[in-house]
Amino acid sequence: GVPSIVSHGEGLLVEPASSTAIYKAIGLLMQNKTNAQLMGSNGKRKAVKEYSATIMIDKLDELYKELMAVS
């Protein structure tokens, strides 16, 4: 799930369906815009590095080949 993707310094995680938690997280970001921009940059860097279309296609191709070898 998301906690396994978002690491410290790449974003904020909040309790699902908790408007209070979202409100507090947005407040933290608004109070420290430098930190918010840094988290955004870090998160984008990780997304491009680990989850780009090319990488996801390669991973899916590997999985497909593994499954075909098993059957």
Describe the protein's architecture and organization.
It is built from three helices and no strands. The chain is an all-alpha fold and 71 residues long. The chain is elongated. The two termini are 28 Å apart.
List keywords for this structure.
single chain; mainly alpha; 3 helices
In summary, what is this structure?
The chain has 3 helices and no strands.
Percent of residues in helices comes to over 70%
Mean pLDDT across the residues is 93
Number of DSSP E strands: 0
Compute the number of helices: 3
Sequence of secondary-structure elements: HHH
Distance between the termini: 28 Å
Task: Identify the overall geometry.
Answer: elongated
SSE layout and pairing:
Elements (H helix, E strand, L loop, with lengths): L18 H13 L1 H19 L1 H18 L1
